[in-house]
Design a protein that fits this description.
single chain, about 35% helix, globular, binds adenosine-5'-diphosphate, binds magnesium ion
């Protein structure tokens, strides 16, 4: 689908939502993983994170992919600055490398840089090599409602570090022919980590990406995933939408690049659903930090 290209695209600032998103009882830490490349891990990470920040939640994104796509999409400096690699190697504190994402109330990012490509090798010789990231995240997680770790397309030591540091696993699945291939390997790794390293890790969330409702294939994949993971699947698929793929080249998420486009609306709904599922019981949601949207006037 091509979106509505007649509309002028102009960022007027980050809109915050009239209705706040529900806060979790304690910090929810997600690994976003799928060892296939190009399935929407980074896109899902940055857009759900941005949507939640717009909903009044305090959110941290950790870019664990040496390619640094999440850092790019969030517009934070990453080529020359210290980031998650320096933390993993014990050469920096997490709190020293956290960067603010411009325009959002509380959206932070720990960037990756190309040195991170050496981490898989350098971690091997370290003591407690699977737990380096966990210790770092534990030192700052209290400052956030949500932490999302964007993984590289592999099941190496970086991804294992993310699994060990997280409470939940979010798997984005692209609705295409080979979608479920490789999933068994991912689930196997998840099982091993759960048994040996992090018993509290929970595969809680599956998001369908690049969905094209006109094709039988997309619908077949969705039905298949639904039948295997009825509780984990968020039943709001992210449509294949041109605005979603354009946003990173403007150092933006689609939530700011074109907040009323179909992709942004879908990510907003998915973010709200994830927050709903994790909300504290008996909570009255009121957050004075969240102001109303004024779509006509721009910034509220
Ligand atoms: N819903 C979507 N509609 C259109 N393009 C998308 C969508 N989601 C992701 N893309 C594009 O697909 C490519 C791969 O997505 P990405 O999030 O980088 O995957 P991964 O992190 O799993 O490698 C990127 O070019 C991205 O812009
Ligand atoms: Mg990626």
């Amino acid at each position: 689908m091509s979106g509505d290209d007649s509309r002028e695209t102009k960022v007027v600032g980050v809109r915050r939502l009239k209705e706040a998103m529900a806060k979790p009882t304690s910090t929810r830490i997600f690994t976003v993983a799928n060892q296939k490349g190009g399935v929407g891990k980074t896109t899902t990470t940055v857009n759900i994170a941005a949507a939640m920040a717009m909903g009044g939640l305090r959110v941290l994104v950790i870019d664990l992919d040496p390619q640094g796509n999440a850092s790019t999409a969030l517009g934070v400096e990453h080529r020359d600055s210290a980031g998650v690699y320096e933390v993993l190697m014990g050469n920096a504190q997490m709190s020293d490398v956290v960067q603010k994402v411009a325009g959002f109330p509380v959206l932070d990012c720990v960037s990756s840089n190309t040195s991170l490509a050496n981490a898989e090798i350098n971690l091997v010789s370290m003591v407690a090599r699977e737990l380096q990231l966990k210790e770092a995240i534990d030192s700052i997680s209290v400052n956030y409602d949500y932490v999302f770790i964007d993984c590289p397309p592999s099941l190496g030591l970086l991804t294992i570090n993310a699994f060990a540091a997280s409470k939940e696993l979010l798997i984005p699945i692209q609705t295409e022919y080979y979608a479920l291939e490789g999933l068994s390997q991912l689930l196997e790794t998840y099982g091993v980590v759960k048994k040996r390293l992090n018993p509290s890790l929970n595969l809680s969330t599956i998001v369908l990406t690049m969905f094209d409702s006109r094709t039988r294939l997309s619908n077949d994949v969705a039905a298949n995933v639904r039948s295997h993971f009825p509780n984990e699947l968020i039943d709001i698929p992210i449509p294949r939408a041109v605005r979603v793929s354009e946003a990173p080249s403007y150092n933006q998420t689609v939530m700011t690049y074109d907040p009323l486009s179909p992709g942004a609306i879908a990510y907003m709904q998915v973010a709200r659903e994830i927050a709903e599922r994790g909300k504290a019981k008996d909570e009255v949601v009121f957050d004075s930090n969240v102001v109303s949207i004024n779509y006509k006037g721009g910034i509220a």
